[in-house]
């Protein structure tokens, strides 16, 4: 029996590495597109076409990390690394003699507006504005631009992914130092250039109540597998836990899991200084992200980690860190 042939683009990242390991553990033949030690590099159009033609599944996770300052050069690289790679894959699928029946492409739940009044679903979610949203919408346009009748396409609107690495690492570090209180939004001046570029975070939600939508890495992998078996699902799919929290609640749960009774809050002025020194953006912790996985739930997906406390305990235990008592 011929093994499944899978192509993963952007396989060197946090999600990509785990996805490749998971598929290979199944016995699938997995080829990767990217930089460095890849089966095809992004400047090798013929190599990309060879891998895509006849593949059973194409997954694209390529994109420069948004954990940086939104300078003009970084903004251009963030956009280009998503749109150009997706466009190149679309060309390969369009020209393939045997195109993959399913193409799953990363997107982001940040595509929705800053929301603290109601949850955003794929059906009634409102698209936001600003640089991050512009990138997300351009990314999805590139995915759905071409007429590819033989290939089902899914855009994964992924929330903040929790696992051994990624966005959780600095938050664990802060919490263990007693600095794991809420990140408090507040008024902060935005320069004309940052307003024009859509990169200056606008104060919306006080008291650490900005919503925090999250997903465990295990469920990201599980959802990719689920999508293979559910041909009725195409278009945008929210990849997020059915149990979102807010920033204050997330940091409180993290402290509890770590057994840390103290968590000093971080006001906006301190966050802005810290983010400048770390060369990243305050939007990453201050935007209110509130999305629900309506389509996955309706299709019957069962989350492996639906609630936050057990999800965090699994990750912390896997890292070999001590944990506090369980909630009753």
Task: Indicate the percent of residues in helices.
Answer: 25-40%
Query: Structurally, how many domains make up the residues?
Result: 1
Would you tell me the structural class of the helices and strands? Answer: alpha/beta
Characterize the overall form. globular
For the record, the CATH class is Alpha Beta
Output the radius of gyration.
20 Å
Note the run of SSEs as H and E: EHEEHEHEHEEEHHEEHEEHHHHH
Which stretches of 5+ consecutive residues score pLDDT under 50? none
What proportion strand? 5-15%
Total beta strands: 12
Per CATH, the superfamily is NAD(P)-binding Rossmann-like Domain
Mind explaining what this structure looks like?
The chain is α/β, with parallel strands linked by helices. It has a single domain (5-318), classed as NAD(P)-binding Rossmann-like Domain (Rossmann fold, 3-Layer(aba) Sandwich). The protein is built from twelve helices and twelve strands. The protein has helices at residues 14-25, 45-52, 72-95, 131-144, 168-176, 192-197, 217-228, 247-258, 268-278, 283-286, 294-299, 308-318; strands at 5-9, 29-34, 40-41, 57-60, 102-108, 152-158, 160-163, 165-166, 211-212, 214-216, 235-239, 245-246. Strands 3-2-1-4-5-6-11 form a seven-stranded parallel sheet, with helices on both faces. The chain has a three-stranded mixed sheet with strand order 8-7-10. Strands 9-12 form a two-stranded antiparallel sheet. The chain is globular. The protein starts with a strand and ends in a 10-residue tail after the last helix. The mean pLDDT is 95.
């Amino acid at each position: 029996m011929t093994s499944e042939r899978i192509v993963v683009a952007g396989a060197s990242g946090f999600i990509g590495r785990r996805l490749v390991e998971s598929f290979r553990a199944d016995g699938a033949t997995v080829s990767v597109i990217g930089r460095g030690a890849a089966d095809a590099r992004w400047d090798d159009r013929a190599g990309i076409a060879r891998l895509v033609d006849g593949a059973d599944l194409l997954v694209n996770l390529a994109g420069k990390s948004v954990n940086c300052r939104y300078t003009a050069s970084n903004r251009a690289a963030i956009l280009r690394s998503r749109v150009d790679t997706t466009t190149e894959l679309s060309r390969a699928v369009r020209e393939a003699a045997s195109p993959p029946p399913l193409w799953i492409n990363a997107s982001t739940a940040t595509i929705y507006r800053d929301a603290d009044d109601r949850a955003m679903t794929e059906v009634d979610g409102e698209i936001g504005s600003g640089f991050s949203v512009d990138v997300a919408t351009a990314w999805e346009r590139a995915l759905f631009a071409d007429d590819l009748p033989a290939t089902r396409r899914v855009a994964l609107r992924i929330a903040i992914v929790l696992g051994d690495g990624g966005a959780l690492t600095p938050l664990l570090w802060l919490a263990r130092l007693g600095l794991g209180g809420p990140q408090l939004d507040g008024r902060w001046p935005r320069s004309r250039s940052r307003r024009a570029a859509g990169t200056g975070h606008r104060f919306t939600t006080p008291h650490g109540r900005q919503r925090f939508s999250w997903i465990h890495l295990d469920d990201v992998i599980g959802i990719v597998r689920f999508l293979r078996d559910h041909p009725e699902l195409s278009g945008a799919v929210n990849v997020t836990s059915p149990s979102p929290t807010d920033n204050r609640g997330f940091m409180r749960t993290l402290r509890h899991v770590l057994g840390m009774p103290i968590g000093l809050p971080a006001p906006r002025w301190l966050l802005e200084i810290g983010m400048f020194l770390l060369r990243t953006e305050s939007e990453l912790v201050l935007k209110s992200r509130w999305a629900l996985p309506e389509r996955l739930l309706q299709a019957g997906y069962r989350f492996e980690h639906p609630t936050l406390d057990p999800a965090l305990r699994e990750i912390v235990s896997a890292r070999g860190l001590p944990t506090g008592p369980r909630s009753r």
